[in-house]
Queue: 2 jobs
Job 1
Amino acid sequence: MNAPTPTAARSTASATVTKAVIPAAGLGTRFLPATKATPKEMLPVVDRPAIQYVVEEASSAGLDDVLLVTARGKRAVEDHFDSDTALEHALAAKGDTERLAAVRGVTGLARIHHVRQGAPLGLGHAVLCARDHVGDEPFAVLLGDDLIGPGETLLTDMLRVRARHGGSVVALMEVEPDRTHLYGCAAVKPVEYIGAGDGTLVRVSDLVEKPARDVAPSGYAVIGRYVLDPAVFDVLAATPPGHGGEIQLTDALRELAASEDHPVHGVVFSGRRYDTGDRASYLRTVVELACERPDLGSDFRRWLTDFVRSGRVAAHG
Ligand code: G1P
């Protein structure tokens, strides 16, 4: 891992965000047995591991420094973003320029760094593991299970909110009351409309991790995109274990939101988001993204249409 960037002379309020932190240390129990020996982040979505989409999203938002927070058993994630000269030579020798470009493209996405989370102490702890690398700069956190639809501008919108308002920014989506227990949920006040297609900006006044429907502050659920002020590190370091006995990022943000001098904003997102850690949602993700692929989509859509028309789908209903 590289040494932290010297930041003493920079004001964190105006600093540009260049770093993304991607926690990838989770066990992936929702997808066992597939994830017994394969990291959940490496499950393929069409022809790329899920985590590659997340790194691509960070890279297209201009974040060219990516820190993966990994753990024991996640070597495949680390290897995926490393160059593989033997493979590149073999593809070059065969004249397979298309696959060679695909393989090289992965390493060219960003400067990738790793740090290990030595114990599974929760998302808040995983983010705290990034402290030495991030230093005193604002940074983005992208959760590897959440894929945002290609072409959506969520992260760029959030970076714009941070540049304009300082503090921290979370991405929110409205969910049904029977799903609040799966997310961090926010109490919010409207602030302004950001602009056509960009969603709504709200001020977050409170956050609760995975509340039951009767105690949820609202139906606004935090999805896996954050732009955080480095002030979060001191708060995380003092945050006791919360929901599930883990150190929760939600709890640290709750404390920041309660303080006068640290705004927490929410960008309400209504675009496409996929949870690839859940089996049913994973299947929908693969089908939708395969349909959209310029190289595979037309054949796949034709097959899918025939499959539905054949009656074999309805036959199982
Ligand atoms: C984490 C966060 C939760 C957030 C969710 C989004 O939970 O703790 O606040 O709403 O990601 O996907 P996890 O899904 O890792 O249990």
Job 2
Amino acid sequence: MALIVQKYGGTSMGSIDRIKNVAKRVKRWHDHGHQVVVVVSAMSGETNRLIDLAQQISKQPDPREYDQMVSTGEQVSISLLAMAIKELGVGARSFTGRQIAIHTDSTHNKARIEKIDVQRVQQQLDAGNVVVVAGFQGVNSEDDITTLGRGGSDTTGVAMAAALGADECQIYTDVDGVYTTDPRVTAKARKLSKITFEEMLEMASLGSKVLQIRSVEFAGKYQVPLRVLSSFDEGKDGSFDDDFKNNVGTLITIDEGDDMEQPVISGIAFNRDEAKIVVRGVPDHPGIASAILTPISNANIEIDMILQNLSTNGTTDFSFTVNRTEFDRALDILNNEVKDDINAKEIHSDSNVVKVSLVGVGMRSHAGVASTMFQVLAENNINIQMISTSEIKISVLIKEQYLEKAVKSLHTAFGLDREDGESQVAGL
Ligand code: ADP
Ligand code: ASP
Ligand code: MG
């Protein structure tokens, strides 16, 4: 018998029929004698619909009220799933984040989980019931509802698995694993049977939304065995035997393995949410970077890539990127609080940019990855606007219109294409 935490995303919970299918899968695991905790997202489109309602009232809704409202999508889906499981003759109980309780800090809209009380869940499991938990939400020390940021149900799933000491956390979604790149961008993307936490963390932080970054951080920190797999597969599951362990979905592993054939690049991530700001003609003297960036950071806006040009005639151009959702706010701050103080000539902005990144632990031991990347982009007439690197990744900022071309050509150049070129993902 194993204790399994399963998380089902919005598409997997997207209709009554799909919820009934999830219930059948949960029952199969339960019938095999496993204890099952299910974490679910809101039905697909529901969270967007709720956010849209709030934004019709205020451009920047009150964070507490926003969480109070946007968390309701998950409350609907937990109860529907618990009903569907009971209809199949299996005992089930649904709980909101507050009922459990999933304790978080008070940073509304992107709260962090601090502690989970597992007694209530454990009691239900011991009584032979399936426990259905609302993803994406928690409760703070004031007894107010908080939410964990978009895609946060992944993090609820992993955190529940860590708190319960589960044998595995299974993230069921609309693709059957983690691919070398988003299979929606190239049919030649290949499914990875395993990927290291370190690489998955980079992929997630560089834009691969298949897992929320915090969920990967959590899984790495608490060593939760984590697997991504499809809720649409009718294949064999429910047994958790060696066959399942070795063959299904993508396993996120700690082990880098001693595979001599370790590829240099494991995957290509991209992020469409970038926006670039260029502060032109600023005097080039000590303190200028801080004068530009401190007011932005003080407003809690995350800065991503940074570039300072060589100075000519004592002035320089200073460029950086922020998330598109924070772009207007960053521009307001620069125009109203910074521009005149630092004597900048002009503030230029461009939101039609994307970041494309190569990720791979194999990069550590291979030189020449960057030069190959730049050469491939040059051959495709794609201009690089900014570059950033770390030990296991190289990112470039390019025009949005070249995203697909860049990903496809890099995918081929780094030997990531699947041989038959056919998509493995049904419906894509
Ligand atoms: P869910 O609603 O189940 O949480 P998401 O939409 O958040 O699902 O994540 C699944 C999606 O992630 C896939 O449909 C796919 O388009 C996208 N994705 C991005 N990068 C990758 C990747 N490297 N491998 C697999 N899927 C990816
Ligand atoms: N429903 C939330 C969202 O759409 C959380 C999640 O699906 O993980 O972001
Ligand atoms: Mg998701």
